[in-house]
Amino acid sequence: MKTTIETERLLLREITFEDKEDLYELHTDPEVQKWTGEAVVESIQEIEDAIRSRQKDYKEYGFGRLAVIEKGTGAFVGWAGLAYLPEFDLVDLGYRFKKKFWGNGYATEASKAILDYGFKTLNLDSIVAIAIPENKASIRVMEKVGMVFDKIAPYDDETPEAVWYKAEKINYEKREKSE
Question: What is the pTM of this model?
Answer without folding.
Answer: 0.92
